[in-house]
Specification:
Length: 277
């Protein structure tokens, strides 16, 4: 359950960080339009808040309308400019509607953060059936690649853009019981390396973040029990759990002009946990 382990979307709105109040006129992302998937909970919600706090206008998405409405309401209540749309990234038509919503609402797309992921199985990787493997890769990998394909023409019209994929430290250090999920997150590391050289001439930077053990409801089984939490932290070599805002701050940096010379890289946000293939 490293990083964004769990289902697409979610209902909780806890642990939001990465942006304190209303964006100022001189924010690093002022004038930019950002699309964030699985953005109603945990890391995704913190990322949406962080980008909006830096001045971007954000279209957030998730699978369920009540969750989208709650997240939009919360962030607008903080003075942030956001809108929302229901989107199941595993469905081509739904991905197209997400992109169209951003274009109709804000007139373009400058930033994409692909955060949606699923993990429908736990146990031996050898016991996972073909349907589980297909679902994991369809949502975690293929959908990310297809979203990139959809937004690239619109980013080119605006002179370039920035794309960040949310991978996981599990892509480097597979977690027992999460074999297929871990493989899909490793595939995202490869996707960055494969596509970044094609996107650079188009003035589009593609990077990724690899969160470690982040305090979200999806990873609660690993940290709610104190004894289990201490064992996991010792095994990972970390002295605290990460927060959604820890990840959001890095994503916001990668999308900003401050990271103009960063492309084709994965930034590990895991408190020092091992992260080498």
């Amino acid at each position: 359950m490293w990083g964004a382990v769990g289902r697409v979307g979610g209902s909780g709105l806890r642990g939001v960080g990465g942006g304190g109040g209303p964006p100022g006129p001189g924010g690093a992302l002022a004038g930019k339009v950002a699309v964030v998937t699985a953005a109603t909970d945990g890391i995704g919600l913190a990322v949406a808040a962080g980008l909006a706090g830096a001045g971007a206008r954000v279209v957030l998405s998730s699978r369920r309308d009540p969750h989208v409405a709650a997240a939009v309401g919360q962030l607008r209540g903080r003075g942030l400019e956001v809108s929302g749309v229901v989107c199941h990234v595993g469905q081509p038509h739904s991905r197209q509607l997400l992109v169209q919503k951003a274009l109709e609402t804000y007139g373009g797309i400058d930033i994409l953060v692909s955060n949606a992921a699923v993990n429908p199985v736990f146990g031996s990787a050898l016991d996972a059936d073909e349907a589980a493997w297909e679902k994991i890769f369809q949502v975690n990998v293929t959908a990310a690649a297809m979203l990139i394909k959809l937004v690239v023409p619109h980013m080119e019209k605006r002179g370039g853009g920035s794309i960040v994929l949310v991978s996981s430290v599990a892509g480097y250090m597979p977690f027992p019981g999460l074999g297929p999920y871990s493989v899909s997150k490793a595939a995202l590391l490869g996707l960055v390396k494969a596509l970044a050289p094609e996107l650079r001439p188009r003035r589009i930077r593609l990077n990724a973040v690899a969160p470690g053990l982040i305090r979200t409801r999806f990873s609660a089984a690993l940290w709610e029990d104190e004894a289990a939490r201490e064992r996991v932290m010792a095994a990972m070599g970390i002295d605290r759990l990460g927060t959604p805002s820890d990840v959001a701050e890095v994503v916001t940096f990668l999308c900003s002009p401050a990271a103009a010379y960063v492309a084709g890289e994965t930034v590990v946000v895991a408190g020092g946990a091992p992260s080498r293939l």
